[in-house]
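# step 3/5: fold
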Amino acid sequence: MSNRRHPDSACNCRSIPRRTFLSDLGMGFTGLALGSLLADDGVVRAEDAGAGKVSSLPHHVPKTKSVIWIFLSGGYSHLETFDPKPALNKYAGKTFDDTPFENPVNSPLHEKRFRSVSAEEINVRDVYPTIYPMQVGWKKYGEAGIEVTDWWPHLAHHVDDLCFVRNMWTTDNDHAAENQIHTGRHRLDPQEPSIGAWAHYGLGTLNENLPKFAVLGGPTRSDTRLSIDSLYLGPQHAGVPLTLDPQNPLPFGKRQKNQSLKSQRAEYDLINRLNELAAVEYPEDQELAARIRSYELAFRMQAAVPEAIDFPSETEETQNLYGMNDKATKLAGSRLLAARRLAERGVRFVQVFPSPYGVWDSHQKLKENHTRLCGTVDKPVAGLIQDLKQRGLMEDVTVVFCTEFGRTPGLEERAGGTTGRDHHPNGFTIWMAGAGLKKGYVHGATDELGYHALGEGHYVTDLHATVLHLLGLDNRRLHFPGRKRLDIDFGHVMHDILA
């Protein structure tokens, strides 16, 4: 006897599209939505690279809950900030060959780490042979006697809370390095998601009313969008730029004056329902999935974001700590105070650009430029460290302070230059502070002239691997189906700096 239904039966299953049938069983977009909700609740963390399945736990016990990533665009001079070199003064005006040290241009490290976009015969950048002296003095601070220049009087008094990495290196000698330090890829190579996007992808949220990856002051230009982009991870993992205008913190996300909250809620419900119906037929459409989630998040953020950047609720003492009472420091201070408030409210990754695009790029007038620029960020950054300490947040938040590359030990001589340094990817300094890190510590070094990061040094993805490790993620297990990453994309955790 046949088990097939009569064609006139009330339930003719043959008329139901296969995708619709699977979707109704929860195997289509509904299943994806459930997985996303579980991720937001902290149940689902990151994909298991070996089995291709979703892990129910962090890869390991996290040391930090949130990251505040501070980026200074343009390339501050490591030599005039956190890695002063007395030899530059001693041999000022001489060439590399006139010193007792090996000419760094002849070192195999130079060819290994330098990747010029222009032809070698016309590109003289970063190989200027005439040594340029230090443009500022320096002192030793803290119990460990860490050298910091005189342009950082406020931050210098917090060195016992900082962990310096003086042997960073990268490969791009132009400002595409701004993207490279966030993505790990040279501009001539296929691009990868940014560090913030990987953190977003791998972690559940701590506050469903705020973005997991927030951006303040950036991206600095349209061509630096990669620094916050998520690429193949899907648009839902990209950074969300916020403004510091409490009346309009979300570009294009403000409810119209003549629209009530109830009316907007009904509008969003209808939009979501229509999108979900479309998702039944296109369950793998990431753009559509991101759009559905973005409407819900945008609706919730309309109330949560303005509160998060409501500075009048902060005491005058706290605002002054960040330099908000001074025109020179107000911009950086506002963004860093907002970063603390966002991290305090559970935002996983806050990327802060305290200065406009490229302003640290001191090809000429380095002394004048760095004197002014350090003055705009020194007090606000020191204020952030002090504020995190007094609120007990140094055990929950990790701060990263970085730039795209350093500056040349040699005098930049292009166009008759006599007062500046060129781009220098071969060796530079970043620092970190907070949860999971050693305090008052210096890791690695450059040579006597500040040219090469000694030893293996640390390519920028080592910084990524370390930050993700502190968040409880193994970078090598952050796997995306169908994508094969290069070994250098993963980087290596800097275990020596971990507490």
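# step 4/5: annotate
The two ends are 73 Å apart (CA to CA).
# step 5/5: archive (pending)
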